[in-house]
Amino acid sequence: MVVQHNLTAMNSNRMLGLTTASQAKSTEKLSSGYKINRAADDAAGLSISEKMRKQIRGLTQASTNAQDGISAVQTAEGALNEVQDMLQRMNELAVKSANGTNSETDRSYIQNEIDQLTTEIDRVSETTKFNETYLLKGDKTAKPANTFAYHVTTVQAGQTLTPASATGAGGKTLYKSANTAATDDEILNAYNPQTGVVTGLFTDATATTAATKDDIDYTAEVKATADSKTQDIQYYDADGNKIAANALTDYFEIKDGATAVTLKDGAKLYDKNGAAISKTDAEQAVTAGKITTGTVTGALELKLHVGADATDNNQISINIDAMSADGLGVAGLKVDGSDDTNARDAIDTIKAAIQKVSTQRSALGAAQNRLEHTINNLDNVVENTTSAESQIRDTDMATEMVKYSNNNILAQAGQAMLAQANQSNQGVLSLLQ
């Protein structure tokens, strides 16, 4: 029997310490709800769960991004619904103006409402925005492709094409200049942008070009300058039908850096007497200057990030064309006049504008449906990843409570045994008496 070292008490104390430490960990897990409260609890599990947390939080935000995208699309589509209603009314007015029972004064009254509706279309385009992003104004930073199709432009020898300011995407501002019979210093009257009717004299003729790149429409302007001379001119198709100004894009084209406006392959033009116009006569050489493109306005591209990683597959692009009156081709639309010429041409122009808005609305509707499926998928991935992360990190309360109760009993037993061990040396005193 020794008194210097009570090994029984030391053993009881060590075991009590282990039990108390285990009990403390159980208390921490039960109180926090996590079985990993520090890296030492599960180093590998912590690393895996943090990667899962990164994905969960990223995908949750991606789902929110997609929902914001739906809100933006709905905002744009709602505005386009009103634009389409106005275009339908403009078509109704154009058809009314084309009726022969209307006098020139009657058509002027109809023109007043057309002008108001056109102004309102511009206002809607200029003011519709989502979170400070204008949705229907297009994107002025877009870059044009190298090949451009002229809507209605030919030029004659000696004229120079130079860049001018840009117009809205999909613009239908259409002008016509030049004549094969004219001399080098002559230029014809410009066609009205929407109707193809010859208007007053001019020296600065502005022509709109259009380009397509990555399924996005752009427009830019070029300018031709020469002296003025009055002369009527009109193109006809093979059936003798007058070709509207907004349809001549199918006949002429020009390339960046080229020195001539050319007739497209296979295109046929006729004069009002039915005589075919030769390719040489239709094309007018440009002997000076270089054709270049100016700053353009393209479709607005909304890029929605709908994933947790920085990959292109996690981006959805939504393109919205400029929906101003210029962009739709109805700026300066005319239905007045002494006869039905303007009104009939306006009907075709409005028809094209309605089709453009319908196409855009259809694209927005398809994008909204896609985004809804994207959100459903993201939410499903978040749910399942959260379940997996929970298995790694969350405390199983029932299991941990069993361990806590067991440690609590062991702690009480350890305390009792330590007390007994401390009293075991009391017998030494009886030996010393």
From TrEMBL:
Keywords from the named record: Bacterial flagellum, Cell projection, Cilium, Flagellum, Secreted
Subcellular location: Secreted; Bacterial flagellum
Domain Flagellin N-terminal: 3-141
Gene3D superfamilies linked: f41 fragment of flagellin, N-terminal domain, Flagellar export chaperone, C-terminal domain
Ranges of residues in domain Flagellin C-terminal: 347-432
Molecular-function annotations in GO: structural molecule activity
A Pfam cross-reference name: Flagellin_N
InterPro entries linked: Flagellin, Flagellin_C, Flagellin_C_sub2, Flagellin_N
Family of this protein: Belongs to the bacterial flagellin family.
Purpose of the protein: Flagellin is the subunit protein which polymerizes to form the filaments of bacterial flagella.
Protein name per the record: Flagellin
